[in-house]
Amino acid sequence: MATTKNKTVWFCTACGCESPKWMGRCPSCGEWNTMVEETTVTGKKAASTTVSSGSKPEKLSEVDGQSESRILLGNNELDRLLGGGLVEGSLVLIGGEPGIGKSTLSLQIPLQAPGIKTLYVTGEESVRQVKLRAKRLGGDDSHCYIYSETLMENILREAREMAPDLMIVDSVQTMYSQGVESSAGSVTQIKETASLLLRFAKETGIPVILIGHITKEGSIAGPKILEHIVDVVFQFEGENKGAYRLLRSIKNRFGSTNELAVFEMTGTGLREVSNPSEMLIPMHDEGMSGVAVSVTMDGTRAFLIETQALVSSAA
Q1: Quick one: DSSP state of residue 69?
Q2: Which of the following CATH numbers is that of domain 68-274: 3.60.20.20, 3.40.50.300, 3.30.70.670, 3.40.50.12640?
Q3: Are 185 and 138 in contact (CB under 8 A)?
Q4: Rounded to an integer, what distance in angstroms lies between the CA atom of residue 120 and that of residue 130?
Q5: How far is it, in rounded angstroms, from Cα 48 to Cα 50?
Q6: What number of CA atoms fall less than 13 Å from residue 244's CA on the CB side?
Q7: What is the mean pLDDT of residues 233-261?
Q8: Which range, of 46-55, 62-71, 187-196, 253-262, averages the lowest pLDDT?
Q9: Residue 132 host element (H or E)
Q10: How far apart are CA 315 and CA 79, in angstroms?
Q11: What sections of 186-288 are H helices per DSSP?
Q12: Is the pTM of this model over 0.85?
């Protein structure tokens, strides 16, 4: 049996490149001041890497070429952004600033789709806090199960026993695995927990939605490799003081990345905005002078914007 020992390495938070020493510039992606120190464990038994998944090589000509089966979430904007629904066995990452509405949207998904058996894993809030937010949002919570846990091994064990139709993890930065000797939220832990969730989703066919925070630079916290592991990456945009939110598709292996969803934050949660022009054009009863309406495109969505010319007589 091989002995284990701790080793200190440096990881790039932008691309996940590993280095035995600190460097001011990452040799892989070229970013400056992105190297962080982590402690890893070496000398693990090789038997842990020889677990068989039961799959065998197949001829490409014999692979079923039918479209992926999808799960409708009951949210038209989100279903359209996903490309027609949530693909079974997919891993979806939703990122955004604190307070932008990530947890609200993730909890509205099982409340608006009562036919979907959902396991909602919360690592930031207690079960009581989630219940209070669910009462404010309204909806049917008879098929939503709340589980407050941060240890990934316990989460996967409960998920395999429960066999839900959907699992939501809020958030990936709070989760940790016993197989990695570092604190939750570190580069190593985020990579390990995301890999475990991806393996779970592909083996069981249960889609997983991950909630992630973003850094002050606007990128999703953790290494860039996290975005390569998942199948879909969505990012919430907007101002906390404003009512409107934009959910933008950055990566989608099962749909287009030119889609954009618009929501309005209300007292009862996020409301779908099917006509985005309503927030940009004031509704006038009659025509006004000095007013022009122009059209702009963001992805596949067309926005009508009203421009007003405010003039006065010269002296």
Answers
A1: P
A2: 3.40.50.300
A3: no
A4: 10
A5: 6
A6: 12
A7: 88
A8: 46-55
A9: helix 127-137
A10: 57
A11: 187-204, 225-229
A12: no
> What's the CA gap between 45 and 49, in Å, rounded?
8
> What pLDDT score does 256 carry?
87
The half-sphere exposure of 12 on its side-chain side, counting CA atoms within 13 A, is 19
Domain boundaries, the chain: 5-45, 68-274, 277-308
Whole-angstrom CA distances from 174 to 100, 148, 210 are: 18, 11, 11
Decide if 81 contacts 249 (C-beta within 8 A): yes
H/E run at residue 160: helix 152-162
**CA 178 and chain centroid, separation:** 23
Is 51's pLDDT higher than 50? no
Model confidence over 257-300: pLDDT tens digits? 888 899 999 988 999 988 877 766 765 556 677 788 888 888 77
Confidence class of residue 45 from pLDDT cuts 50, 70 and 90? Answer: very low
pLDDT at 210 over 60: yes
Do you know the residue count of the chain? 315
CB atoms within 10 A of CB 116: 19
Q: Answer for the pair 190, 231: CB distance below 8 angstroms, yes or no.
A: no
| Amino acid, single-letter form, for residue 227 | E
Q: Residue 253: how many CB atoms within 10 A of its CB? A: 14
CA distance linking residue 122 with residue 102, whole number of Å: 12
